[in-house]
Fold:
Amino acid sequence: MRSCDAVPLRTPVAAILILAFVASTGGQDLTPAAPLTLVSREGRRPIPTTVQAGREVVALDDVATLFRVTVKEDTLAGGVTVSYRGRTIVASANRPMASVDGRVVSLPSQVIRAGSRWFVPIEFLSVALASIYDQRIELRRASRLVLVGDVRLPRVTTNIDFPGPPTRASIEIAPAAPVTVTTEPGRLVVRVDADALDLPSATGGGLVQLIRQGEQPNQIVVTMTEAAGTPRATVTTANNVARVAIEVPPAATSESKAPAVEPRAPEGEPRPPEPDPRASIVATRSWQTIVIDPGHGGDDVGVRGVKGNEEKQLTLDIARRLRAMVENRLGLRVILTREDDRAVGLDERAAVANNGKANLLISLHVNGSRVPDQSGAEIFHLQLDRESEEVVRVATAEGASLPTLGGGVRRLDLIPWDLAQARHLDESSVLASVLQEELQRQVPMSGHPIRQAPMRLLAAANMPAALVEVAYLTNPQQEARLNSDDFKTTVAQAVFSAIVRFRAWSEESQTP
Amino acid sequence: MSLRVWWLAFIGGLAALVLIAISIARMYAPARPVPSDAPITRSPTTPKETAHITATLFFGAPDGQSLAPMRRDVALAETVVDQGRQILAAQLSEVPPAPYVSVIPAATMLRAFYVTERGDAFVDLSSDIVRGHPGGSLNELLTVYAIVNAVSANLPAVRRVQILVDGKEADTIAGHVDLRRPLTRNDSLVRETDEK
Structure:
C-alpha cells in the first residue's frame, strides 16, 4: 500500500528531474550509468558516467575536478581544450578523435557537446589524458576502475571450485602479494598487502554465502552459511599468483580444531604441492603470460646499419626494456624467446610461446630497405593464403571426437600445428591496430604502417600475435635514433601501452 | 537454275564452315602472357631477330614500399618450363633504371625450374639469395613476391610458386616470410609506374 501511495507523489518529482537533466544536456539522449571508480594513492573516488548511443561517456567538468586539469571551451572553433602543465588536448564536437600535443588519436565514439557541458568517451582517460598527465592512467573497463599513479592494485579472481559439501573455493591474486587470512565468527577475512583490489562482483555457492570486497580496500571477506563449519584456508604462490584455497566443511563434521590457516612448512621440510599453474590459467580469464621475441640472434644478425649497428642487439635491448615494464607495472610473467645473443629457430620461438601458454606474442624487429630514405615503424600480422585457409576450414569442420570420463564426447579441432594462428587471426588484427595507434603516438610510422603477410613465426603462434618493425636501420637518421636510450625506451613504452589496451580489450571481450 | 542454286548454297556453306573454323582456332589459341598498355622495351640482351614474348618483371619502386612492374622482351621458348626459365633469368639478371632497384641479391642463380600438373611451380635458387639478402621484413616480402609474381603473372599455367634454396625447402630467406608453402601472386605490393 505504501509504495502504491508513493507513486503519484514521486512521479512529478521524477518527471521534473528528468526534464531538468534533459535540459542540462541540451536534449542529447544521455542516460546516467554506474560510476567508474578512480583509484589512486589518495583513495577511491567515483567518476560519474552517462551512456549516449550505447557508449559510455564522462563529463569533462568532472574530469577537470578529479584530475585537476583545465577545461576551456573554444566557442568560435566549436572545440574544447584540456590542459595540464603546459600540455594540451584539443577535441571538437561530434568527432571521434582528439589532438594530443599535435598528434591525432582516435576515440571509440564522438565527443559530445550537450548544453554547456562536454562529454568524452571514457577511453579518453587512458588514450588521450594519459598522454599529457604526469602519472599513469589505466582504464580497467571490466572492473570499472581507473588507476591513477603507481597504485598496487592486483587483480583478484574468485571461484567456487566445488559446491560440496565440503565446499571448496579459491581466491587468486595476481601479481602475487603477501596475504594474511584470519578467521572470525561466520567468516574469513583475507588481507592483501596492496593499496586496493581489482575484485569481481560478489560470488557464492555451497556453504560459502558470499565472497566480496571487505570493509577496507585491501580486504576480501568470505562469509559462510549457517550450515558451515570452521573453514580451512591454505595460501600458496606460483607463477607470481597468490592462491588462497578455502575448504568449508559442514557444521556437523567440523569438530576438529584445525588452524584456520595452515602454516607454511619450514625450509627443508616437505611442502604441500604447489598449485598447477595450468589449472589457474584455466580457472581464470586473466592474463598470466606474454612472450616477447627479440628477432634474430647469434649468427643471424638481421639488418646491419651503415654505422655497424645490428638488428639482433637492438631487438634484444628493446625486449629487455619492455619486459621490465610489463613485469613491474602489470605483474605478468614475461618470457623472452632468447635472453642473450644466440641463434634460436623460428619453430623454437613459437614453441616457447605455445608451451608457455602465453596470452600474447610480440616479435620485435628492426627493418631494412634498399632505399636509404625509407623510415618509420610497421606492424605485420598473419595472412593465410587460400590453400591454408582451406586446410584450416576442413580441419575445423571435420575435427575429431574423444570420449571423456563420465560419458560424453569432447570435440577436437585438428588444425595443423604450424597454422595454429588461424584461430587468432581476428584478434591479431585488433592487436596490430592497437599497436599502430600506440606507436604512432610516440614514433614515426611508415607510409604503410600495417601489413598482412605470410610471416613464418606468426603462423605457428597459438595466441594473438604480431611482428613489429620499430624503425629502419638502413636509414642513417633512424640508425642514430635507434642508438639512443630515449628512443628504445619510447618504443618499449608504446608497445607496453598497446599491451595494456589489448589486454583490457581481450579480457572484456571474453567476459560473458 | 536449280543447279545454280545448289552451287550457291554449297559455296555459301563452305564459307560458313571456314569462318567457324577460324573462330574456333582463335578461341583456342595460346593467351598472351601479360596484357598491358605499357610500351615494350627491348632488352639489350635479346637479339632483334630472335622471337620473343613481352614479359612483366618486378623491381623495387623508389618509395621502397612496393614493386614496380616493367615490360621486357624475353626470348620465346617452346614449353612452359623453358619459358619460365627465360623469364626468371631475366628477372634475376636485369638491372632496372635508377631510381628503381633490383630486390633480388645480385649473385643469385637459377638452379632449376619446374611445374607440376597442378600448376605449382618450383623455383630453385642458389643460396646467394640468403647470403646476399640485406634483411628486413618488407625487403624480404619484396624479394619473395618479385619472383612469385614474375612467374605467375607471365605463365597462365602456373597457379602457385614455391621458392627452394639449393634444391631444398627453405623456411625463409631472411627470417620473416614463410616459404614452406607455395605462394600465390600478390598484387597488393605492386604499384603501377610510368617507368618502362
